[in-house]
Amino acid sequence: MTGSRNQLPCELLAPAGSWESMVAAFRAGADAVYMGGPRFGARAYAENPDEDGLRAAIDLAHLHGKKLYLTVNTLLKEWELRDELGEYLEPLYRHGLDAVIVQDLGVLAFIRAHFPGLDIHASTQMTVASPWGARLTEQLGACRLVLPPGAFAPGGRGDPRDDGTGDRGLRPRGALLLLFGAVSAEQPDRRPQRQPGALCAALPPSV
Question: Is pTM beyond 0.85 here?
Fold first, then answer.
């Protein structure tokens, strides 16, 4: 396949429901893994690590040039947004967490406001299935979008990047990861420059 200026590097992403599965994924060649922690993850019965385990997982990933994404993909209550989400994410943010995967638009807005520089991936659970929804997700601050299976009919229009002419040619049949921004070949140490924004009482509504 010939390259082009607009071609993004491919990233092999694997789920990791435990420390052992994370190590196995990296050994098998995964560039990144996504896993849950003790709070706000949809896989409640996975062997998710605690805060210390997540920090160790981030260290292991970065030691080997890999990345770790944290799932924060449940719908949060107002008091969880107000009182708990920031406290949960701050130590991992300071430790160099690469990205979070979210479902709740309130969570997306909160992270965008209070954790600058932390990448946000829109989960397939958002069920974004139109070009307009994809553009809106990007405008709200997500840098990646995972499309739900069967979002666009084969042969029809539906590329989320489509300008309405149907000429962009993307025809997904199953789950598709759409990147809004390029994946950097080098992952800098994000810890020194990260300072969380001040928490305030005025929070966006949870969806």
Answer: no
